[in-house]
Amino acid sequence: MRTTRYRFRWARLIVLALVIPLVSGCMLARSSGSVSVIAPQLETAVDADWPEVDWAVLVQRPMADQMRNSNRVLVRVSRSRLQSWPEATWLDSMPDMVQGLLIQSLEDSGRFAGVGRAGGMRSRFGLASDIRSFEVVDDGSGRLVVELGIRVNLVHQPTGRVMAMNSFERSRPVAGGSLDEIVVAFEEAMAGLFADITGWVLSAGEEASGDLEGWRDRPSGPRGRRLRDD
Q1: Other C-beta atoms within 10 Å of 36: how many?
Q2: Which residue in 158, 159, 133, 128 sits closest to 145, CA to CA?
Q3: Nearest Cα to 135, choosing from 197, 61, 63, 77?
């Protein structure tokens, strides 16, 4: 099987002021008022083994805790302590960015009958997710690592039934300490993460579609109301 590959164009940096180099051994350099806004760009290379499906999927805005429900670039400096890096932000809040890139990944695969945001159209499945990690880890050794983790549920839209669930994690060492090198590590980690999720949605959705055969003929609710699919 040909390995799925995503290629990121060099992330677009909207430079509002000069970028401050990172202090050796610590990601959190002193803020001098300079901020760079990071807007990753995604290109999709499709795996030839991915199936083409006749159903649509809607992507919900991911859930996230208070720190991750923002546009902060996060740094984990210990097992239980997160800090934000004042010299850089994401273009959107982290959940909005992940939702947009995931929609783009699914749509650019060309394998779905339709892809959109929740509430935008009728679909067979919805994708609900929870961001567990999305940060640079700085353990004080001078070695930085990007760590991403997302929990995903595939939901049958007409009934609200969870058909499949999975957790996806990706990590990528940072080659150095510059902003460009950190962005590249995020790009590479996100490339693998979204490739994994796209392939899983296709296979899990096809398996779930088989399990759903005949579900329209089964009553739902105390009055036996029948449901309709797309």
Answers
A1: 20
A2: 133
A3: 77
Q: Are 77 and 96 in contact (CB under 8 A)?
A: no
State the Cα–Cα distance between residues 116 and 196, nearest whole angstrom.
Answer: 19
Asked if 173 and 143 touch (Cβ cutoff 8 Å), the reply is yes
What superfamily does domain 5-21+33-42+54-212 belong to in CATH?
ABC-type transport auxiliary lipoprotein component (3.40.50.10610)
Domain ranges across the chain:
5-21+33-42+54-212
Is pTM beyond 0.85? Reply is: no
Confirm if 174 and 189 have CB atoms less than 8 A apart.
no
pLDDT confidence of residue 13: 45
pLDDT tens profile 195-216: 999 999 999 999 999 888 765 5
SS3 state of residue 77: strand
